[in-house]
Amino acid sequence: xxxxxxxxxxxxxxxxxxxxxxxxxxxxxxxxxxxxxxxxxxxxxxxxxxxxxxxxxxxxxxxxxxxxxxxxxxxxxxxxxxxxxxxxxxxxxxxxxxxxxxxxxxxxxxxxxxxxxxxxxxxx
Length: 124
What we know:
It is a single chain. The chain is of the alpha+beta class. The chain has a domain at 40-123: Sandwich (Immunoglobulin-like). 23% of the residues lie in helices and 40% in strands. The chain has one helix at residues 9-36, and strands spanning 40-46, 49-51, 54-57, 63-69, 75-79, 84-88, 93-98, 104-110, 119-123. The strands form two sheets. The chain has a five-stranded mixed β-sheet, with no helix packed on it. A four-stranded mixed β-sheet has the order 2-1-4-7, with no helix packed on it. A hairpin with a 4-residue loop joins strand 5 (75-79) and strand 6 (84-88). The radius of gyration is 24 Å and the shape is elongated.
């Protein structure tokens, strides 16, 4: 008399699916923590004038700039040095993530207000 075999294929598939889901959750949590670890710098623009005009950031580390347009018309955060552009309507808010910078000074400006002073990002 032979002993009946139990089917384990269902349990193996379920175990693999649970392991894959757990791995996905760990990766998702890791990436969300990495995004939360970005230093954030606030920048407001009002009719071509940036506040603050100079932002000091850590060299060698990614960071985020949260931009708010407090002016009456559109504005554009633009930096040829950083290869970044962001157009915002009046009252709008947005952000840009800047990859790690080498120590130095990087300029930005509002293309809609070319006569206004340029801003600077100083990576130290």
